[in-house]
């Protein structure tokens, strides 16, 4: 652990040497800084402030695992924790605004799944959906990649699912037009379809990917999905070095199960992305091992790739923290904390590859705490 102590000292020294106004507008006058020396010390010690939203189900347990690993690895991140839940009596417009204010200030957040009740209580849009819309988190990215040493039906998979998540079937526009007749509106706009298509091609270019597949149902929804497909085709022409193909959603599901290796980057509307995220996660081990992230022009939110609260596991200490820990390492990379990101990611993969400590979803008997402790031990 001596090496970790050196890293902690070095990180603090570098942060302390920074100009106080060079990072997110934290500059203050000398007098004001002196009057708030304790607050300034906290910023140096905690370094990057990150909003944490534990969510429901096993979310709080997974966040505890993240905090324990970050502490052991001396990660220069200070979590600003908030609680928002529709099923734990911790949901209100005031709490939502508090969370939004924190996320807008910090720009980066790590969140657990906020469970959405099926009961209609006068508001169609869940707090989870409202959060994403108010921050305009239009792009959800799920990197589905096989973990070395953990064999599944398909091994050596490496594909990316990019989902537009601010419109489509999740527009919360439903009404009863006549007794027993419900109309549910699916919204597709040119602006947002072009935006997510460009995001997918930019992602493919930046990450050295060779192909983008647009997933749709334009053969049936000729106008709605037709517009989405048209936008993808138009954007594809601007990226001649990236191969472009299209695929109908039902065929895509079958192809993913039969031959997932044909895919590289997939881009799709909201509902299809929700389904494909979970299907693809199952190909490499399930909801417990796949990280995810969501982006707007200003904000980045890190979460599990398959959004599942796993409520039946609450309090049983059996949840797999892999997905949340890997999401946390992606967050560190976003913050340019490459060393800490790689150190934790390598430790997680080392534990999985060794195969001695695995949670029940991976065929083992280890608890969430056991896995977290094994990762901490692998850091040194």
TrEMBL record:
- SMART domains recorded: Iso_dh
| Cellular component GO terms held in the UniProt record | mitochondrion
Q: Which SUPFAM superfamilies match?
A: Isocitrate/Isopropylmalate dehydrogenase-like
Query: Where does the record place the Isopropylmalate dehydrogenase-like domain?
Result: 49-375
Origin organism is Mus caroli (Ryukyu mouse)
- The family this protein is said to belong to: Belongs to the isocitrate and isopropylmalate dehydrogenases family.
Concerning NCBIfam families, the annotation shows:
mito_nad_idh
Query: Self-association or partners: how does it assemble?
Result: Heterooligomer of subunits alpha (IDH3A), beta (IDH3B), and gamma (IDH3G) in the apparent ratio of 2:1:1. The heterodimer containing one IDH3A and one IDH3B subunit and the heterodimer containing one IDH3A and one IDH3G subunit assemble into a heterotetramer (which contains two subunits of IDH3A, one of IDH3B and one of IDH3G) and further into the heterooctamer.
The protein's matches in PROSITE patterns, at most eight in alphabetical order, are given as:
IDH_IMDH
Q: Which gene encodes it?
A: Idh3b
Record's keyword terms, sorted: Mitochondrion, Transit peptide, Tricarboxylic acid cycle
Task: Name the Gene Ontology molecular function terms of this record.
Answer: magnesium ion binding; NAD binding; oxidoreductase activity, acting on the CH-OH group of donors, NAD or NADP as acceptor
Protein name (Swiss-Prot/TrEMBL):
Isocitrate dehydrogenase [NAD] subunit, mitochondrial
Q: Which Gene3D superfamilies match?
A: Isopropylmalate Dehydrogenase
Q: Which GO terms describe its biological process?
A: isocitrate metabolic process; tricarboxylic acid cycle
Coiled-coil stretches, from where to where? none
Q: Is Transcription regulation included in the keywords of this UniProt record?
A: no
Q: Which Pfam families match?
A: Iso_dh
Q: What does this protein do?
A: Plays a structural role to facilitate the assembly and ensure the full activity of the enzyme catalyzing the decarboxylation of isocitrate (ICT) into alpha-ketoglutarate. The heterodimer composed of the alpha (IDH3A) and beta (IDH3B) subunits and the heterodimer composed of the alpha (IDH3A) and gamma (IDH3G) subunits, have considerable basal activity but the full activity of the heterotetramer (containing two subunits of IDH3A, one of IDH3B and one of IDH3G) requires the assembly and cooperative function of both heterodimers.
Report the subcellular localization.
Answer: Mitochondrion
